[in-house]
Amino acid sequence: MNAPASAESTTAATPCKAMLLAAGRGERMRPLTDSTAKPLLKVAGKRLIDYHLEKLAGAGVTQVVVNTSWQAKKIESTLGDGSSYGLHIDYSYEPVALETAGGIRQALPLLGDNPFLVVSTDVWCDIDYADFIAKSPDSSAHLLMVNNPAHHSKGDFTIAPGGKVQIKNDISKFDSEAFTYSGIGLYHPQLFKSLPVAPLPLRDVLIPTIKAGQTSASVYDGLWFDIGTVERLKALNDYLVNRNT
Fold first, then answer.
1. Into how many domains does the chain fold?
2. Looking at the domain assignment, is residue 133 inside a domain?
3. Over the stretch 63-108, which tens digit does the pLDDT of each residue have?
4. CA atoms lying within 13 Å on the CB side of residue 16
5. The CATH number of the domain where 103 resides is what?
6. Is the pTM of this model over 0.90?
């Protein structure tokens, strides 16, 4: 079930910068990630991060920031300056992984003053990034939600009439289905500017803005995979191989 549509932004159609989250250790993917960074693992013969970079280039994005920590040198030597993808890549190295919000905060000088797209490299989604950016309303954060996967069947958030995000347990004013955050969102830099550069999960930053009614969302009914385990990596590989045969 899709959430009610929100008013479209009049400026979001302009290509924006994007940040790919690639600093995680990938503990649940061991032993595959003992010597290879999770974003460099391959499915259907292609690295996970390649799918995102190619989709961003196809959407008109030209500047991408990749945060790194575990196996940082391997990621940088593999991707280079991004020219082979038709992009320019900057790297934000974290000696100690800063989690999602902390990583974004450190990368702000590279991301600029306009809203930017953030994509977790351990998801795979066939959404059109250009369409998502163009239809995102003007808010502190606009999150892409998906229907709950089997391994997270109860979801995290609900969406009120008008497209505002609500915490799942705070639904006294309306009856709504819960959804799962996809790992893809459009964020305003002001959301992170006052934060220290320190480890901090994104949820801790989003909860206050959600309660203040400053976070919106849309629901995507297309293909989405959370590649958090070896089994899910295999499931995506099998899907892509079968689709291409």
1. 1
2. yes
3. 999 999 989 999 999 999 999 999 999 999 999 999 999 999 999 9
4. 26
5. 3.90.550.10
6. no
